[in-house]
Known about the structure:
Blueprint: H1 10-18, H2 23-31, H3 35-50, H4 57-64, H5 68-74, H6 78-101, H7 107-122, H8 128-137, H9 145-172, H10 183-204, H11 208-221
Amino acid sequence: MSSSTPDTVAVRHKTEAATLPTIEADFVKAAKGDTKSHLLATGYQLLAHKGFTAVGIKLILDTAGVPKGSFYHYFASKEAFGEAIIKGYFEHYKSRLQAISNQDISAQQKLYNYFQFWYDTQQNGCDHEKCLVVKLSGEVADISDPMREALAGGYMQTIGWISDQIKAGWEDGSVPKTENVAAESLAKRWYYAWLGASLIAKTSQSNIPLSEVWQMTTSELGR
């Protein structure tokens, strides 16, 4: 398959992605009958669309329809609330990665589908499925150490999954082996490139950064 921009295969891969659990759906499902989970689901939706600094506790409470006392019963501060959302996001995201791992396709195709989905959710304005990480990565590093550390832990979780797929691809022959580059290093290069491209695409309101890393990734995948 050509490594042209993924618009040419978007319909097929969007159909595949639709079979995977969405992170927002996971948050909403967990929120039923549980005030804490309901607050987290509400916060996730607000932070993914507006960012951390633009969302105040009053907006969270008004949107969730719960009293102020309920918020502070579960969370010591807005910062602790943000940390819990990030950790919850990556827990749900782990389930999405596992669902991809369970598909009966080559490791190369799993990686291709993963980055295809990333491209789809970031072009022309990011989608909430990825926007939370993109928005907060450029916002909270200097605001909150706990939130920064939660993000960093999530990055490493995802990089570990990408690394495992690269190794599997080397074993099944679907991913070209890169001389003198460990799977972990290649996974970091790809993840950091995609996260950076997503931030630049959001700032520049252009899909060119995403198209460039797509070309790089598919080339290194042997597509």
